[in-house]
Specification:
The protein is 83% helix and 0% strand. It is an all-alpha fold.
Length: 196
């Protein structure tokens, strides 16, 4: 690895850690806005807050992993660099970003009963994540070359299912648990080469 390659990769990691830190702050803001507003929490409130908490920690942990990658870049160990970057990006995207984007419309349903705001937030979230994933910007295509479109569609369907099940109070907990397990599964499988 040349010095220019190391410098480029280090700068890229620094930029990515800054973005992940910014997303962590936004997630903490949502959690802070939601927690003081409620005296008692039923599952329709706890689940979106727990998604935001998991997302926040995933973003923090991935930021730590990626910032530690800088040391491996300086050392020039390609195998360790790949390990740090692959796991850092997988955790940040799947457990961090995906969970955050899906949880925002669920949190909006807690904050307001206004159907217009809830639908606009939901459509923005689903259309945004759909565009991001189906247009090839997501890491899914790198990690799951044969099944990335299927996984993308499943994440979008889970987002729709979560919103509808929350609004209708119909098996919201079950859909949430299945979605969280699915996200955890793709997070763990993504960096493993035999699944790519």
């Amino acid at each position: 690895m040349t010095t220019d390659d190391k410098n480029f990769l280090t700068n890229q990691v620094q930029t990515d850690v800054s973005l992940i830190s910014f997303l962590s702050v936004i997630s903490v803001f949502f959690i802070g806005a939601l927690l003081p507003q409620f005296n008692s929490y039923d599952l329709s409130v706890r689940i979106p807050i727990s998604f935001l908490i998991v997302s926040t920690f995933a973003l923090l942990i991935s930021g730590l992993i990626l910032s530690n990658a800088s040391q491996k870049i300086v050392e020039g160990d390609p195998k360790k660099i790949k390990k740090y970057l692959t796991w850092g990006y997988a955790i940040s995207e799947y457990m961090g970003v995906f969970l955050f984007i899906i949880s925002v419309p669920l949190a909006m349903s807690i904050i307001t009963a206004d159907i217009y705001l809830r639908v606009v937030t939901f459509l923005s979230s689903i259309l945004g994540i759909g565009f991001y994933q189906l247009m090839g910007f997501s890491l899914l295509e790198n990690h799951f070359t044969k099944s990335s479109k299927l996984i993308s569609v499943l994440i979008i369907l889970f987002g729709i299912g979560l919103f509808i099940s929350q609004v209708l109070s119909f098996h919201f907990t079950l859909v949430s648990i299945i979605f969280l397990l699915f996200i955890l599964l793709i997070t763990c499988m993504g960096p493993i080469e035999k699944f790519q």
